[in-house]
Amino acid sequence: MDNETTTGHVTRKAVLRAAIAAGIAAPAVLMGVPALARTLTAGDTAPALTPECDDGDDPTPPQTEGPYFKPNSPLRTSLLEAGTAGVRLTVSGYVFGLACRPISGVLLDFWQADTNGAYDNTGFRFRGHQFTDAQGAFRLTTIVPGLYPGRTRHIHVKLQAPGRPVLTTQLYFPNEPRNNTDSIFDPRLLMTVRDAGGAREAAFDFVLNVPQNPGPTPTATATTQPPGGSWAAGTAYRAGDRVTYGGLAYVCLQAHTGQTGWEPPHVPALWRVG
Ligand SMILES: [Fe+2]
Q1: 200 CA to middle of ligand 1, Å?
Q2: pLDDT tens digits along 149-174
Q3: pLDDT above 80: residue 229
Q4: CATH number for position 90
Q5: Is residue 32 part of a domain?
Q6: I need a surface site. Which of 12, 17, 188, 250 has the fewest CB within 10 A?
Q7: 70 CA to middle of ligand 1, Å?
Q8: Beta-ladder partners of 128
Q9: How far is the CA of 112 from the centre of ligand 1 (A)?
């Protein structure tokens, strides 16, 4: 699995994530970017980052709530119940603010279809809410949701940082055929998913529109890239196509038509540096 930490372009979020994993206070680590970059490259322990969160990046995009949200879901991190059918799935990650610092106490309210593509509209099966921990982390234990007509595979979620507006959005799975035909699908919301002994482990980091003190300025390797290159919105790209953007070369991973907001650094599910 490729990830940007192997490319030499190290984002503020990558550094923060590594800091969190290492149990180091973020501001101290921000001043040590090069050392952490080398650590990550050597250890290959950091998952791919989706979406990227560096200075100036946009928050996680909103999505339609759809017809099946219900308030008052139970407080629980596992949606599994006795006899639950389906492929086991964990979704884990962090919630960041605009300066890419983790936010604790963020409400995440998940709801999804069962393995047959049905929502429970009378009870609360496959519905639950939780809060990010002191490190801004969350972890959901559930199953891979089934497909239902008209949509690709997805998980719904509402997020709310303390005292802030609600973000309603959805998470998607890579390599789903219906991703290409679902008009709601947005590759910026693709999780990183891997097989784990018959189960699936997914990762996704949210960025909320929450102002934050950015803290110490990272070193030059973590600053924004120059714009420009051969990538262009409106172009139909096929897997294997090559473009340049922001001074880096990228290879297309999935066929799609480029759109503003889907620039190669923002959609690692569609483009990898290479
Ligand atoms: Fe849905």
Answers
A1: 20
A2: 999 999 999 999 999 999 999 999 99
A3: yes
A4: 2.60.130.10
A5: no
A6: 188
A7: 12
A8: 110
A9: 6
